[in-house]
Amino acid sequence: MEPKAKIFKALNEADGIISGETICAELGISRVSVWKHIKAMVESGISIAASPKGYELVADPDSLVPWYFGERQERIHYFQEIPSTMDKAIALARQGCPAHTVVVALRQTHGRGRMKRTWLSADGGLYFTIVVRPTLPVMLASLVNLAAAIDMADLLKSAYSVDAVLKWPNDILTNQHKLCGILSQMEIEGGQVAYISIGIGLNVNNAPQNKETTATSLKALLNRPLPRREILVEFLNRFEKRMAHFDADAVVAQWKANNATIGRPVRIETFDNTHSGTAVDIDSYGGLILRRADGTLQTITHGDCFYQ
Ligand code: BTN
Does ligand 1 lie within 6 Å of residue 133's CB atom? Predict the structure, then answer.
């Protein structure tokens, strides 16, 4: 463990203030180097109060600094600013990072949305990409994205009483306003899923910009700022558990039980096509089944969905 991680552990385990001498003795380093490490930690976003008696970790459930993630910390790659957590996660996945590696950033300068759109990523939002390596047939891979949306919506409902519903394929809306978007990219090797990178943008304490007039945030809904680490940890708890025993039928059933797309007239846009009809169901791979104006059924596997 590197010195800063050891100092963080000592501060975290202390019941209140811990003296500089105690930290020096525990780590076997000088007071000056303890002070230098603490200064750097404060600059990187850790709240530490210093007084003549010593140092104290200030409770900060919003901080996304890896040391706060306990046993998960080795798998958390944290950035104050990054072009896109997707690109970093994909690079890590290609280098062989373990499953459930997470790239998280306070802001993104080139956040990516679906269909090559920009995802505005100002301070206050929760922007992360998680890498998973499911041993699933490729045709079931889309269900992993639906599962991420189900788990996030479920946590927003149960922890914060938000009326979160799913819009095909994996948007989360409340009162028709977008709260969360999910973008995923997958690589296949030898007919198997090598990895799926699932990028999640959740409007937490940010004010979604004019360009996204149909968007809202948790802060706007609940009239208070919410702690992003608490949300991320709770999501990871749910999603890691789900991925350990992935049940495709359960995903389809849970998605159907929590969606607001089935039953609606919709328009689905892909890069080169537009499909219209009434959404009547999803199939066992997560594809949306439309009843077209002529009464025939059509299954759409990807695209952007607009309610008509
Ligand atoms: C959408 O268009 O609805 C999907 C938006 C996905 C945004 C997230 S934010 C974290 C991750 N990094 C990105 O660049 N995009 C995804």
Answer: no
Exposed/middle/buried for residue 255 (C-beta within 10 Å: 0-12, 13-18, 19+): buried
pLDDT digits (tens, 9 = 90+) for 62-99: 999 999 999 999 999 999 999 999 999 999 999 999 99
The answer to whether 85 and 105 are in contact (CB under 8 A) is: yes
Residue 85 near ligand 1, beta carbon < 6 Å: yes
Domains of the chain: 3-57 (1.10.10.10), 66-257 (3.30.930.10), 265-307 (2.30.30.100)
User: Cα–Cα distance between 217 and 116 in angstroms, integer?
Assistant: 22
Task: Please work out whether the CB of residue 111 comes within 6 Å of at least one atom of ligand 1.
Answer: yes
Residue 191 has pLDDT above 90, yes or no: no
Q: How far is the CA of 202 from the centre of ligand 1 (A)?
A: 9
CA atoms within 13 A of residue 297's CA, in its CB half-sphere: 9
Task: Quote the tokens at residue 206.
Answer: 């940010």
Please give the full DSSP string across 76-94, using - where no structure is assigned. Answer: EEEEEEES-HHHHHHHHHH
Nearest protein CA to atom 11 of ligand 1, as residue: 199
What distance in Å separates the CA atoms of residue 74 and residue 92, rounded to the nearest whole number? 13
CA distances to 62, 81, 129, 176, 187 from 120, in Å:
20, 13, 15, 19, 25
Per-residue pLDDT of 113-169, as tens digits, reads 998 899 999 999 999 999 999 999 999 999 999 999 999 999 999 999 999 999 999
Specify the ligand 1 atom closest to the Cα of 181: 3
Q: Going by CA atoms, what residue is nearest to atom 2 of ligand 1? A: 113
Q: Are residues 144 and 136 in contact, defined by beta-carbon separation less than 8 angstroms?
A: yes
- The answer to whether residues 261 and 290 touch, using CB atoms and an 8 Å cutoff, is no
What are the DSSP calls for 167-219, one per residue?
Answer: ETTTEEEETTEEEEEEEEEEEEETTEEEEEEEEEEE-SSS---GGGTTB--HH
